[in-house]
């Protein structure tokens, strides 16, 4: 019976969140092509992204992957939570070994169920 209850809870949790097929005016292809922000193209997308930032909350991991592409960096925690990092300005990450950089980056945090719980910048952007 206990296993049945756990399966029900997991099924309910996996159905949480919403899908996100895109952000109006956001050039997802340009973002994905600017790996590590070395071509400085991601910064041009920030005004649109900031205007629709709230729509990212509650979005599933797969939709973030489809919209932003593979993260430049990823951190996992013990509680099965993870954070994706996307650089938004060039820095030392653009050098041959792609070392972690102090350049500003977008951080998207996912809770244990794979749903976005926070969308932050390493260094907050000025309000527009």
From TrEMBL:
<feature type="signal peptide">
    <location>
        <begin position="1"/>
        <end position="21"/>
    </location>
</feature>
<keyword id="KW-0732">Signal</keyword>
<protein>
    <recommendedName>
        <fullName>SmpA / OmlA family protein</fullName>
    </recommendedName>
</protein>
């Amino acid at each position: 019976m206990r296993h049945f209850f756990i399966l029900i809870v997991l099924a309910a949790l996996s159905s949480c969140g919403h899908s996100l097929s895109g952000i109006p005016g956001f050039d997802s292809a340009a973002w994905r092509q600017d790996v590590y922000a070395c071509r400085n193209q991601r910064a041009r997308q920030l005004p649109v992204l900031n205007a629709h930032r709230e729509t990212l909350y509650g979005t599933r991991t797969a939709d973030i992957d489809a919209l932003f592409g593979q993260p430049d960096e990823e951190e996992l925690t013990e509680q099965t939570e993870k954070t994706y990092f996307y650089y938004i300005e060039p820095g030392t990450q653009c050098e041959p070994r792609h070392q972690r950089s102090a350049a500003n980056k977008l951080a998207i945090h996912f809770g244990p169920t794979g749903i976005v719980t926070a969308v932050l910048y390493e260094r907050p952007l000025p309000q527009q």
